[in-house]
Q: What sequence folds into this?
């Protein structure tokens, strides 16, 4: 059977940093130092899918194992969407109360997707920015 060759017959373009950043935000992947901060628990940072509690050994296992369902969480990173333009750094409100802020934003074919750090107790929204733009929580895909 002839072996398929991937030569110059096909050309591929490298993704730019902007392309990768847009993909990351649209996929709901938080970036440390921007969307998730150093002291965040995995649940707060939206990173529980990266933790395997069944794995025998990994750095920080004891700390993560000590987090129980009753551990009070402070914030959570959410994926929000809207049809209107918004910017990183805009404050968010839920029920008239300060709820957090947008940390990363990108335009998509369906509108705008953003990552936001919000207070745990206000995570259900609905959210509105300082400028009155409504944002909904994107359903997990």
A:
């Amino acid at each position: 059977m002839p072996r398929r060759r991937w030569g110059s017959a096909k050309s591929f373009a490298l993704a730019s940093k902007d392309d990768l950043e847009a993909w990351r935000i649209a996929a709901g992947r938080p970036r440390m130092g921007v969307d998730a901060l150093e002291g965040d628990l995995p649940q707060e940072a939206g990173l529980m899918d990266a933790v395997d509690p069944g794995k025998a050994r990994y750095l920080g296992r004891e700390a993560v194992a000590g987090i129980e369902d009753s551990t009070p969480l402070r914030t959570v990173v959410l994926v929000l969407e809207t049809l209107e333009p918004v910017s990183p750094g805009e404050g968010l409100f839920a029920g008239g109360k300060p709820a957090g802020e947008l940390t990363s934003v990108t335009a998509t074919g369906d509108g705008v997707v953003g990552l936001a750090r919000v207070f745990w107790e206000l995570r259900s929204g609905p959210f509105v920015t300082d400028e009155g733009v409504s944002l909904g929580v994107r359903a997990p895909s």
Observations:
- The beta strands are 75-82, 91-94, 97-108, 111-119, 127-129, 134-137.
- The first helix runs from residue 17 to 26.
